[in-house]
């Protein structure tokens, strides 16, 4: 039995990961989450009530709390992050506190107690690509305070691996979609706006391209790293499905049979990356992982979930 601490486990990706991990009998799971705008204890209530998960309300930048939790667990998986790009532009301080300083607190405790860390990052650290795909060796080029804070955390992890020899792996993933995502994110925001008869704000001309991966495919990739990932390595997780923001919105509107003028073009975001594209062959070759779910097959069930929740 492996004792696992999941930091940020009440958020979108973290809670989906905890639900999947709880199905297996090899893990005893503890979750710590600050329950900011992106995290909700309700995402984990069934698991907490059934004693499959122990929950702590706390901040990963709290050194005393994290020392206690890291010491009593074998593996730490860090989903905890401020992740909304718009918020990082308005208030970058909180992003540095959680994403950089919080990660450093975890690293120090992992080093102190000789534990293992899996750091969850993002493809946004590679910046906007005019063409081609970013693999794990691609240069980092951050264009927002959010992506800069995540890249900083990644570099700290690699530095601690090189300098202190700690056991750490990093995962980077493209845009996730699925259930339990905060309503500020594009897909749930679009679904809920259309269900309520409101127009959906679209930055610029809506032609920004994103690679989309189902959150459960991402979760499967992280579990593969937990079981077979190598220390000091980075693993990309993406899919073969890329769409513009307008294409995603038109698809959702068509599934909801929306006929009114539902688009509201707004001023483009500052430093808005035009295109993300991620190369994930390393994860396929070394971990036997590949994306299984297809966007067009999943969107109806996701719309239904947000309609009910």
Written overview of the protein:
There is one protein chain. The chain has eleven helices and twelve strands. With 309 residues, the protein is an alpha/beta fold. The protein has a domain at 2-180 and 214-238: 3-Layer(aba) Sandwich (Rossmann fold). The strands form three sheets. A seven-stranded parallel sheet has the order 3-2-1-4-5-6-10, with helices on both faces. It has a three-stranded mixed sheet with strand order 7-9-11. Strands 8-12 form a two-stranded parallel sheet. The model has no long low-confidence stretch (mean pLDDT 93).
Number of helices: 11
Q: Return the CATH architecture of the domain at 2-180 and 214-238.
A: 3-Layer(aba) Sandwich
CATH superfamily of the domain at 2-180 and 214-238: NAD(P)-binding Rossmann-like Domain
Query: In sequence order, what are the helices and strands, one letter per element?
Result: EHEHEHEHHEHEEHEEHEEHEHH
Instruction: Report how far the terminal alpha carbons are from each other.
Output: 34 Å
Oligomer: single chain
């Amino acid at each position: 039995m492996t004792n696992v601490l999941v930091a940020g486990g009440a958020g979108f990706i973290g809670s989906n990961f905890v639900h999947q991990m709880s199905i297996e009998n090899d893990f005893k799971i503890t979750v710590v989450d600050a329950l900011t705008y992106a995290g909700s204890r309700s995402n984990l209530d069934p698991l907490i009530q059934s004693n499959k998960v122990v929950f702590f309300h706390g901040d990963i930048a709290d050194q005393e709390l994290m020392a206690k939790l890291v010491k009593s667990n074998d593996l730490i998986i860090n989903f905890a992050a401020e992740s909304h790009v718009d918020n990082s532009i308005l208030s970058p301080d909180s992003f540095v506190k959680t994403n950089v300083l919080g990660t450093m607190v975890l690293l120090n405790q992992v080093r102190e107690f000789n534990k293992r860390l899996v750091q969850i990052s993002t493809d946004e650290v590679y910046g906007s690509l005019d063409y081609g795909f970013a693999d794990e060796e691609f240069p980092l080029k951050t264009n927002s305070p959010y992506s800069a804070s995540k890249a900083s955390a990644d570099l700290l992890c690699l530095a601690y691996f090189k300098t202190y020899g700690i056991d750490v792996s990093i995962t980077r993933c493209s845009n996730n979609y699925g259930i339990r995502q905060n309503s500020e994110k594009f897909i749930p925001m679009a679904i809920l706006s259309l269900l309520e008869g409101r127009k959906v704000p679209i930055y610029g001309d809506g032609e920004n391209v994103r690679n989309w991966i189902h959150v459960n495919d991402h979760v499967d990739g992280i579990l593969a790293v937990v079981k077979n990932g190598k220390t000091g390595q980075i693993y990309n997780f993406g899919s073969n499905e890329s769409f513009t923001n307008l294409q995603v919105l038109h698809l959702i509107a068509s599934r909801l049979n929306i006929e009114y003028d539902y688009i509201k073009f707004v001023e483009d975001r500052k430093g808005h990356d035009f295109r993300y594209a991620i190369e994930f062959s390393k994860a396929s070759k070394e971990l036997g992982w590949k994306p299984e779910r297809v966007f067009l097959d999943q969107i109806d069930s996701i719309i239904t979930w947000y309609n009910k929740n």
